[in-house]
Amino acid sequence: MKIPKNLNIGVIGTGYVGLVTGICLADKGFNVICVDNNKEKIDKLKNGELPIYEPGLNELLHKNSNRITFTTDLLEAVEKSNIIFLAVGTPSKESGEVDLSYLYQAVDDIGKYINHPTIIVTRSTVPPGTTRKLKDIINKYPNKKFEVVSNPEFLSQNSAIKDFMNPYRIVVGTDSEAAKEIMDFLYKDFDCPKIFTGLENAEMIKYASNAFLATKISYISEISKICDKIGADVFEVVKGMTLDPRIGDKYWRIGIGFGGSCLPKDTLGLYHIAEANDCHPYLLKAVTDVNNYQRTTYFFQKIKSKLGEIKGKNVTVWGLTFKQETDDLRESQAVELIKFLKKEGVETIKICDPLIKDFMKDYFSEYNDDGSIEFYIDPYESVKGSDAIIISNRWSGFSKTDKKRIKELMRDYYVIDGKNILDPKEMKELGFYYEGIGRR
Ligand SMILES: NC(=O)c1ccc[n+]([C@@H]2O[C@H](COP(=O)([O-])OP(=O)(O)OC[C@H]3O[C@@H](n4cnc5c(N)ncnc54)[C@H](O)[C@@H]3O)[C@@H](O)[C@H]2O)c1
Questions:
Q1: Is 272 within 8 Å of 96 (Cβ atoms)?
Q2: 274: pLDDT strictly greater than 90
Q3: For 234-301, where are the E strands, in sequence order?
Q4: Cβ(122) to ligand 1 under 6 A?
Q5: What is the Cα–Cα distance from 148 to 390, expressed in whole angstroms?
Q6: In what order do the strands lie in the sheet with 146-150?
Q7: 17 CA: nearest ligand 1 atom
Q8: Residues 375-389 pLDDT 10s
């Protein structure tokens, strides 16, 4: 299989992963064509507007607009591309198993259209064995010249450009020497370890990595609960633990657990992969259970015991998206929190997030017939007349506020800090009734 070295890249799916992949590869000098079957998204992109928010991505898109195009026409993209990245969603089914229907549909369509040697790359997170299966899907169509590669994405939303351009590692799984050579060429300017391995290894590296990160968070969630009960401070505990290099000092996210479109779904996905293979995944189940408990039951009990009667109170929620500096609401801890507050009979819920968009307001419309849910982008405006602030993401704009001014604007002074972004000592000295997670 001969593939030219002046590569043209196709990217299927223009979500968080597809857009970052496409725009960053354009910035590396490749010609890129991005496809989505959502016409609204493509119309926006054609007008130079991003359908998602990711820091720095808009600027990078405009810098490289001469090398990147957007279309809903898959045929055009397949005809023009030497490498096609699959970046469609792989959400959880209701059962928790991975839904591969978007991926299989896209690959079936690609299979019909391939008319020159092409490398098909799964960038989406897929269960081990999936990329190999793509061969069968394409081979239904006669005389197609292609190779398959698993090249999982490891980016985190809100640091995606840095993560793509300066990754900790690039993982390429393939059985094909030709594909390996081309992928090596594609990533020649990336200064990081590159692992060339088998298809299933590459797919498993992605799941094992995400489930490990989730495990780390659930572990420290469990420790933080114990700290709460015994009167220890989890930050002090972590400081002491992480001096041991075997434990390491990164990614101790202490608070109300993890949300977002990846860690919950991939931990659950790996659990189901393990179950299907008769592997009794006790730990993976516990990671999900601990997280669900931490972000709901445990957090809500804390709120109730701190506030006493919740009914009739005005409550401000700082942080709506699952993490700061993204506009992604998928598996956001704030969503369950807001539903809980509503059920408890809160008078007004004032939601504050700098990235509030109309679709988020629409999301809550069924709970907001009476107009009791209000939306703010300014933290000071959001606390006027409130009895309590509940923090559910780590936007630095919240921690940087002038706390004296915040207090002057409030009616009562409860602060329940689900992400431990404020200093308990300072807050208590200022007269707030402050409560973090596992903190003294
Ligand atoms: N979001 C992250 O932080 C992240 C990080 C690493 C890996 N991943 C993985 O990457 C994949 C994509 O995630 P995402 O967050 O970008 O998803 P997303 O939902 O933001 O984007 C997926 C896009 O694919 C499009 N699409 C679906 N079917 C299509 C088809 N047949 N043809 C063309 N377009 C189609 C959708 O319209 C959508 O725009 C998932 O497997 C995810 O697990 C995500």
A1: yes
A2: yes
A3: none
A4: no
A5: 47
A6: 68-71, 31-35, 8-12, 83-86, 118-122, 146-150, 170-173, 194-197
A7: 16
A8: 999 999 999 999 999
Radius of gyration of the chain (CA): 24
Measured in degrees and rounded to the nearest 5, phi and psi for residue 98 equal: -80, 130
The mean per-residue pLDDT over the stretch 41-63 comes to: 98
Residue whose CA lies nearest to ligand 1 atom number 15:
16
> What are the DSSP E strand ranges found in 117-169?
118-122, 146-150
Contact call for residues 300 and 340 (beta carbons, < 8 A): yes
Q: Whose CA is nearest to atom 21 of ligand 1?
A: 15
Is residue 156 within 8 A of residue 20, CB to CB? The reply is no
The pLDDT value given to residue 4: 72
Catalytic residue chosen out of the listed positions 24, 34, 262, 352: 262
Would residue 262 show up in a list of annotated catalytic residues for this protein?
yes
Q: Stretch 45-74: mean pLDDT, rounded?
A: 98
CATH number, span 207-287: 1.10.1040.10
Element (H, E) at 194: strand 194-197
Cα(287)–Cα(285) distance, integer angstroms = 5
Residue 219: both structure tokens together: 């572990």
- Residues of each domain in the chain carrying CATH 1.10.1040.10: 207-287
∠ CA 125-172-216, nearest 5°, is 50
Q: What is the mean pLDDT of the chain?
A: 97
Model confidence at 127, pLDDT cuts 50, 70, 90, reads very high
Tell me the average pLDDT across 395-411: 98
Going by CATH, does the domain composed of 299-435 fall within 3.30.930.10?
no
Of all residues in the chain, what percent carry a pLDDT higher than 70?
Answer: 99
Specify the pLDDT at position 6: 81
Residue 168: pLDDT over 80: yes
The SS3 of residue 147 is: strand
**Rounded CA separation 9/22 (Å):** 8
Structure tokens at 386: 């409130």
What pLDDT digit, counting tens, does each position of 1-43 carry? Answer: 776 768 999 999 999 999 999 999 999 999 999 999 999 999 9
> Is the model's pLDDT at 423 over the cut of 90?
yes
Q: Say if domain 8-197 classifies as CATH 3.40.50.720.
A: yes
Ligand 1 close to Cβ of residue 106 (< 6 A): yes
User: Measured between alpha carbons, how far is 420 from 324 in angstroms, rounded to an integer?
Assistant: 14
**Whether the Cβ atoms of residue 406 and residue 430 lie closer than 8 Å to each other:** no
CB-neighbour burial class of residue 320 (10 A; exposed 0-12, middle 13-18, buried 19+): buried
| Its pTM surpasses 0.90 | yes
* CATH 3.40.50.720 in the chain, residue ranges: 8-197, 299-435
